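Please describe what follows:
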Amino acid sequence: MARTVFCQRLQKEAEGLDFQLYPGELGLRIYENISKEAWAEWQKKQTMLINEKRLNLMDPEARALIEKEMVAFLFEGKDVQIDGYVPPEK
């Protein structure tokens, strides 16, 4: 049976992640408070961010930026600002 969490991003009960996908305390916080759906949304945003800013994930500054954006997106309800990206109209 799938585990459910109260997702802080979506503000509702939703299917939780199968295992901790990010290291350390932050990873545990994500595992306990973020749903699969919200994590999938973040993964898309993260890919766009990496491509847009041409980030090298071997660079500690790039990883710090990604982590800061991830926390803002998942826990503070902020959207990722990507220069030059225009979301498709609904």
Remarks:
- The mean pLDDT is 92.
- The CA atoms of residues 55 and 62 lie 6 Å apart.
- The beta strands are 4-7, 12-15.
